[in-house]
Amino acid sequence: MFSPEGPGLRELAVQALSSVEHGYDLLAPKFDHTPFRTSGAVLDATTRALTGLGPFARGLDLCCGTGAGMDVLRAVCARSVTGVDLSAGMLAEGRRREAAREAGAPGPRADWVRADARALPFGPVFDLAVSFGAFGHFLPRELPALFAQVHSVLRPGGRFAFPLGAPPPFSSPWYWALLGFDMAMRVRNALWRPPFVMYYRTFRLGDVLRALHGAGFATELRALPEFGRRPDGSPRGRLVLATRAAL
């Protein structure tokens, strides 16, 4: 699962026994060499789905990590892109990646801001917000307040978009792997402090849509055709597209 440049077992164990913030500070230099980084296939599919929905001037990557989603924003936003994350280490790695980009390369200005996604330090200035792979760090009861924060930083008519994969079927090894991970995390958090909140099976589509509606969003689902369909015909991957009402 990990490349030779990725973290070792001891490093992962230290991270797992840390807080979410400190754990990601420790993991940041090697994060892009782990399977936890959002895959290029997901990023590319999201970019294609968002292309043509704009124009977008300013974009926000919520819980940006080292900045994989910032590349999606650069492709569809004309003026500026902003990444926000709680981990100073992940932001530092994102800035390092930004500096390594070719000098003078075209694209919008990029900003990196350390903040809690549950208390965003912005007014309603963004046309588009995205997020990739971060929602497992929030308990289901936190979603209404989290989505309300996103709603508050979007301009009227602004969009909040994120990919969401279909849950694996009961017969799939992935079902049992994710179930086992979540159970292990619950045991860890019952026995050890500080907690490390990361669950793969708590971000369910029905709950997500209800929380988005409660925050004031209108929602639609768009299939991501790159990932095909399940035997029942439903898409294996969707883009959740939530829109703040225009004035």
Automatic annotation (TrEMBL):
Keywords: Methyltransferase, Transferase
InterPro entries: Methyltransf_25, Methyltransf_Superfamily, SAM-dependent_MTases_sf
Domain spans labelled Methyltransferase: 60-158
The UniProt record lists the keyword Transcription: no
Gene Ontology annotations of biological process type: methylation
Pfam family membership, one: Methyltransf_25
GO MF annotations in UniProt: methyltransferase activity
Keyword Methyltransferase: yes
Name of the protein this chain belongs to: Class I SAM-dependent methyltransferase
Organism: Streptomyces griseoaurantiacus
